[in-house]
Amino acid sequence: MGGPGGGWGVYRGARESEPPFPFYYWTTVPDSNRIMAKWIQDANWLQSLEGGIDTVHASFLHNSAEGPMVAPGAQSGNNLMFNDTRPKLDIEETAYGFRYASIRRGPDEAKHYVRITPHIMPASSYPPFSREDNRIWNMWVPRDDGTCWAWDVCFNETKPMSDELKEQLKEYRGYYAFDPKTFVKYAGPQNMWLQDRELMKKESWSGIRGLFVQDNAVQESMGPIVDRTIEHLGTTDAAIIKARKLYIKAAIALAEEGVEPPGVWEQGDYELIRSDAYVQPVDSPWKVERPLEERFAVGVA
What we know:
The chain has about 300 residues and is of the alpha+beta class. The protein has 8 helices and 10 strands.
């Protein structure tokens, strides 16, 4: 079925149970304000999803030898994210899943730098960006036990992107790193995700071109299905832990009670969900600075 924002969806259940097509915030902006891509990711769906939920990795993986990587068209710098690589995470459960704040040191002792990431069950997240910048939405859909479809949408809330900027963003994010006919990536374990050792010295900490290719290298290099019995989660993995608990709870409710997971039917007003990145006073709670819409509170129909 065709949907808003140039998206297409396939529903494989009973006709009488067909859910409405989701309206996310990026679907409400004109075509001139966005670019999008999809590719096949050679990692388990949940493994890929967790990589998108986590944002602390950006302070390391998406860094460069000469300082923070700056996205084309960025209106605000992200030095604060790289100056403090050990943020405190605070999670708020919502009707659509959860959102969490990654709280870092601000530009001075009286300020915090806060990055808010909403995770919308059952498949998507908004990485945190300031509201004047181009923004990102990601989604992962299972193909089989070891691979998934990955979607990336880059959009601007208020203004169109020039053709030049679109090309720069496609290069920066990695849109030319896969076959547009088969959606198979050119980079993978067979060629070390096209890692360039010289590039590591001057441009990219990872030596890999394209942000999503950098993400894929980390998510895929551990194998298509990681053995979670040997992992060691830390305090900055709190959002991953929350996601696992919510998905296990949803799976049990579906299997035992026939209750559909969040995000399948309750998609009203999803276009209001956004990420954020901003500076605030240290003595003010982030939930006060950026209050949750009442309609998204747990238990509100």
